[in-house]
Amino acid sequence: MASNQIQLSIIVPVKNEQSSIATFLGAVVPVCESMAKHFEIVFIDDGSTDATLGLLKDEQLRHQQIRIVKLSRNFGKEAALSAGLSVSRGDAVIPMDVDMQDPPEVLPLLYKRHLEGFDSVVAVRKTRTGDSVFKRFFAASIYRLFVWTSRDQVVPNAGDFRLLSRRVVDILNEMPERTRFMKGMFSWPGFETAYVEYERLKRSAGKSQWRFSSLWSLALDGIFNHSTLPLKIWTYCWFFGSTYGVGLHVSDRE
Ligand code: UDP
Ligand code: MG
């Protein structure tokens, strides 16, 4: 490994997060400094219309580890994460939300397990008090539906907050899926996985971008892109429909 090789990349998708960036960097930079000599924090500006981009550029003057990728419009968190993974250079890569719901003190715990030899270290929510009852219920239902329909594994109570080794990231970057449902894709490469529990807290500032409609369309993306069940259902409909049609035709002629 080259001596200035980036050891750790933090990937942070942001949309209209002007009130969260300073708090996030104030907490995350010291933690990263304690973990790795060479690290980068890659912000993906996912079509922000507030002061997010300007603030990131100001912060970049103070912290040379910051890199900024500006997307041409809002593509959604999944696409922003994908863009972040594709430009990341670290031996270990951690996607993280900017609103402090993914606590920075969990970063060293993930990294420790990685140094022990795990390619994938998933942060699992012990509690989800930071999210509303309705969101928790809806997310849990979607998870059950996904597990039921998909051949891929999705870890219960886990989001995008996790550590991925360089070889896992390289595989994810090679995957040709146009619809990037990351929670389904993360587990596809396999490899040894460890789990670290944490408490998911409330958003520190700003407003959640979460909408029922966006989670619903994410759920459909997950089911239609990671499962052949919808195709099988249509095949059965076609089979029984045409058998019934032929039956009617025959009985008409008798
Ligand atoms: N985000 C994004 N693009 C979007 C929506 C959200 O990059 O279209 C980012 C957002 O800025 C934050 C992370 O994704 O860093 C999680 O978003 P949010 O907190 O709104 O989601 P929630 O935690 O409520 O599910
Ligand atoms: Mg959040």
Name the strands of the widest sheet in spatial order: 3-2-1-4-6-5-7
Shape: elongated
Query: Could you name the CATH homologous superfamily?
Result: Spore Coat Polysaccharide Biosynthesis Protein SpsA, Chain A
The proportion of strand residues reads 15-25%
In whole angstroms, the N-to-C terminal distance is: 80 Å
CATH topology grouping = Spore Coat Polysaccharide Biosynthesis Protein SpsA, Chain A
- The helix tally amounts to 9
**Care to count the β-strands?**
7
Q: What percent of the residues sit in helical stretches (DSSP H or I)?
A: 40-55%
Could you walk me through the main structural features you see in this protein, from its secondary elements to its overall organization?
With 254 residues, the protein is of the alpha/beta class. The protein has one domain: Spore Coat Polysaccharide Biosynthesis Protein SpsA, Chain A (Alpha-Beta Complex). It contains nine helices and seven strands. A seven-stranded mixed beta sheet has the order 3-2-1-4-6-5-7, with helices on both faces. Strand 1, helix 1 and strand 2 form a beta-alpha-beta unit. Helix 5 packs parallel to helix 8. The chain is elongated. The model has no long low-confidence stretch (mean pLDDT 86). It binds uridine-5'-diphosphate and magnesium ion. Magnesium ion binds next to loops.
